[in-house]
Amino acid sequence: MALTVYTTSWCGPCRRLKGQLTREGIDYEVIDIERDPKGAELVMSVNNGNMTVPTVLFEDGTTMTNPSVIDVKARMAAITA
């Protein structure tokens, strides 16, 4: 499953979510919005103009902002159901 996590290098909640995803064995791609202008644009487009991270993009095009790993797993299950 394609999962993309939009993040920054200094974001504590981002580090926590990435660690939880790794522990759960969930593969994901990381996009640093401070280094990737298109990533920053996507984050702002789904967060009312705010650069709120972590923002997670799922393979079906839906997003979640600052989700827990439980929320991510539930959304992934719903997509594949």
TrEMBL record:
Protein's GO biological process: cell redox homeostasis
Record-annotated Glutaredoxin domain positions: 4-58
Gene3D superfamilies in UniProt: Glutaredoxin (3.40.30.10)
GO molecular function, one term: electron transfer activity
The name this protein goes by in its record: Glutaredoxin-like protein
